[in-house]
Amino acid sequence: MDVGDAIVDPARKAAGTLERAEDVLVTLHRCTIDAAFNEIMSASRRHGLPTVSLARALVALFDDAASDDDAGAAAWYEWGSLVRTRGENLAQRIPSVSSERLRPRSSGDRARLS
């Protein structure tokens, strides 16, 4: 194995994650790639989370591997009702999280976090 093969470019990995998340939304909403990208960006701003983190959480939710962190809670809040696996709503299997974590952050919340 060449050393160059072992090193993964973080920007390329992030782009791949975002691309996969866009594909998920295109599948769920039957929308355009641009609309999917804009939805991810808007949700990222609403929740005050990095776009790639939210995209990664959306992909995990779609793959039935939802995470128990802020990005996972935000992905569940935004898209959980759309994601169904084997005809069963994922809400029945995802651990409950506090409503505080699900609520999009307001600008006042962000000011308190800084």
Structure described in brief:
With 114 residues, this protein is mostly helical. The chain has seven helices and two strands, in the order αααααββαα. Strand 1 (84-85) and strand 2 form a beta hairpin.
Kindly describe this structure.
The chain has seven helices and two strands; from the N terminus they run αααααββαα. The longest helix has 20 residues, at 10-29. The model is unreliable at 85-99 and 109-114 (pLDDT under 50). It has 114 residues and is mainly alpha-helical. α2 (10-29) crosses α3 and α2 packs across α4 (51-62). It has one domain (10-113). The protein has a two-stranded antiparallel ribbon with strand order 1-2. A hairpin with a 2-residue loop joins β1 and β2.
What is the mean pLDDT?
77
Give the biggest beta sheet.
Answer: 2 strands, antiparallel
Strand ordering within the main sheet: 1-2
Number of strands: 2
Shape verdict: globular
Structural class: mainly alpha
